[in-house]
Automatic annotation (TrEMBL):
Residues 296-305 have a biased composition (Low complexity). Residues 306-322 have a biased composition (Pro residues). It is found in: Membrane. This is Popeye domain cAMP effector 2. The gene is POPDC2. GO terms for molecular function: cAMP binding. Its main location: membrane. It is a multi-pass membrane protein. One of its GO terms (cellular component) is sarcolemma. The lineage of its organism: Eukaryota, Metazoa, Chordata, Craniata, Vertebrata. Residues 26-251 form the POPDC1-3 domain. It comes from Chinchilla lanigera (Long-tailed chinchilla).
Amino acid sequence: MSTNSSTVGQLLWQGPVCLSWKQDLEGAVYHLANCFLLLGFMGGSGVYGCFYLFGFLGTGYMCCVLWGWFNACGLDIVLWSLLLAVACLLQLAHLVYRLRMDTLPEEFDLLYKTLWLPLQVPLHTYKEIVLCCQEQVLTLATEQTYAVEGETPINRLSLLLSGRVRVSQDGQFLHYIFPYQFLDSPEWESLRPSEEGLFQVTLTAETECSYISWPRKSLHHLLTKERYTSRLFAVLLGYDISEKLYTLNEKLFAKFGLRFDIRLPSLYHVLGPSASEGGPESEKDEEEGFAPARSPAPVVPTSVQQPPPCSPHPAVTNPPAPLSRARMSRPDSSVLGEDSTSLVLEDFEEVSGSESFMDYRSDGEYMR
């Protein structure tokens, strides 16, 4: 044991004894090989960093092969350098294969950069999602329907890539769907995996559209298997549905000039046909819906009744104008809040003319 330790100590501290040093330097190929090796070991990480690393290392080892064959004349130098050069070339071939496998079609690549990459979704996860839709891009011609209310079954989930889709119900326009929004996210969330249903709205393409579609069963199977993908879709679908609700909210605000609450039980009844299209029945419904805004309830109906015929006031030459349709088509009084009192007072002034039979006081009582 002591003999081995002494031999190792001599090799470490004394080193090999060179009988004579070469006076001539090695050839240019040797120095070129070391320059390539130095550049190669300065490479970074990632796919392109590996390309840089193995590219320069492979070139440097090939130069070592040439130097060992022509200058050093050493078989061991040639063999080792050749083995390392072949290993670098195999690594380059593997990187090229990976890049070709990771290449996506143009539409899916743009979709990844626009929607999924900002969420830092790994590429392999995105590829599983793309494989679920079979990497197919479907198209819709102008005025072609994607779904018809009451007829089309809910059996897929689709995402719009280009174009614009119009959403309507009973012929009434609701909102638009723009690129990188889901076409049927509310329908998807409204049903359980084991349930079946039909569309309650009609989706029509206003321009030439392209979209991708996931079959319902295949996507549910993927979401059940991959928890991360399930959470990802839950976030995207929730955001998409909220955007659609806020779009309806903005439409109501633009139509009535009042800010509506998106948590109303039914927005369609407010967006439905106007009273002029519904005839007497619709006017009756409006009057019933608008009656709760008049406070107190037992007193208001008597105040609106026409008084007995009497001689007109000398200052009044024209009869009072009837209520305008715009005023009668106001939304439900539960949405108006504190403004309902002032609106009712305006109606009273229009009905009674300049000679008001009843005065409304701030304490809620009526005085003749």
